Amino acid sequence: MAQMSDHITLHEVLAFRDLRPEEVEEIESVATEKNYEANKFICREGDPGNCLYIIKSGQIRIVKITPMGTEKVLSRLGPRSFFGEMSLIDGQPRSACAIADVDSSLYCFYKSDMDGLLNSNSVAALKVVYAFARTMSYRLRKMNEELVRLFSDPDRTIREIMESEEKLMRYFLISGWYYEGPE
Fold first, then answer.
1. CA 18 to CA 177: how far, in whole Å?
2. Per residue in 97-146, pLDDT tens?
3. What is the pTM of this model?
């Protein structure tokens, strides 16, 4: 595979920081680089979950489409951020849409390739999956805390609950994502 040298290296990504250089190379060997033009969908809610993405350059917005057909922006992500990690664990359909805000370059790690590394007892793959499991555990704990806080006060106003919704949605995001505020 060609050396991926633009903008970031995988070692700069939170999930890969604890890997030795040779382990990063092993993981990088199954990476595919994909480029997306501004406003192009990378994946849509409900699509098969078969790939983890790491943003090499550009900016991606993660959105949910409301029943009325409008976009609810959950986050905007930049270089070193990742999304789609749940698909490496459970292979379930996408839970949100990802759209390139600007021309963007991504590393893509297909579930089948990561499964191949895991089946070969790759220590690097185990470390990466463990890092994503820690991330999801952290996110779930934060979401639980926020849900308890959100619904524990019967005197809360609807406005306060709506404001808390924004915070709650952020807890659904990966700790490696860089939140830049609402639209």
1. 18
2. 999 999 999 999 999 998 999 899 989 988 988 888 888 888 788 878 87
3. 0.74
Q: What is the mean pLDDT of residues 73-81?
A: 89
The domains found in the chain, sorted by start residue, are: 10-171 (2.60.120.10)
3-state secondary structure of 51: strand
At which residue do the structure tokens 């900016």 appear? Answer: 59
In DSSP notation, 87-124 reads HHHH-PPPSSEEEESSSEEEEEEEHHHHHHHHHTT-HH
Q: Which amino acid is at 151?
A: F
Please classify residue 95 by burial: count the beta carbons closer than 10 Å to its beta carbon, then call 0-12 exposed, 13-18 middle and 19+ buried.
middle
- In the numeric block, the tokens 């990966």 are attached to 174
The alpha helices in 8-157, defined as continuous H runs, are: 21-28, 85-90, 111-119, 123-151
What DSSP character marks residue 162? H
